[in-house]
Structures are given as C-alpha cells and as structure tokens.
Amino acid sequence: MPIQSEFHRYLNVRASTGGTLRCDRRRLAFLNNTTGINQVWTVDGPGLWP
C-alpha cells in the first residue's frame, strides 16, 4: 500500500458538531459530515437513530 493512502485514512476524519436542543427538548439537531459535506441531522429522542 502506498504511503499516501495510509496517511489519507487518518486525515479523512468524520465528525458530528454543534448539537442544539429544540425548545421542548424532544429533538436534537446537529451538523454531521459523514458524507464529506456538512448536513443537518436530527434525532427525535434518546437512543433513536438520526
């Protein structure tokens, strides 16, 4: 495996940031860049998938 591709996997980090609760505290919105582009994701309750 070329050295460049070995380092690329460490530089290609995905993350979720900027979580905000709705005023009724039942929905969480956050930015996620899993696809490589920031997108707004929401979760409707604890333990649920966005």
What does this protein structure show overall?
The mean pLDDT is 78. The longest helix has 9 residues, at 3-11. The chain has a 3-stranded antiparallel sheet, with no helix packed on it. The relative contact order is 0.18. The protein has 50 residues and is an alpha+beta fold. The protein has 1 helix and 3 strands. It has one domain.
Tell me the layout of helices and strands:
Blueprint: H1 3-11, E1 16-21, E2 28-32, E3 39-43
Antiparallel strand pairs: 1-2, 2-3
Sheet with the most strands? 3 strands, antiparallel
Order of helices and strands: HEEE
Helix content: 10-25%
How many beta-strand segments? 3
List keywords for this structure.
1 helix, alpha+beta, 50 residues, 3-stranded antiparallel beta sheet, single chain
Describe this structure in a few short sentences.
With 50 residues, the protein is α+β, with helices and mostly antiparallel strands. The chain is 18% helix and 32% strand. The chain is built from one helix and three strands; from the N terminus they run H-E-E-E.
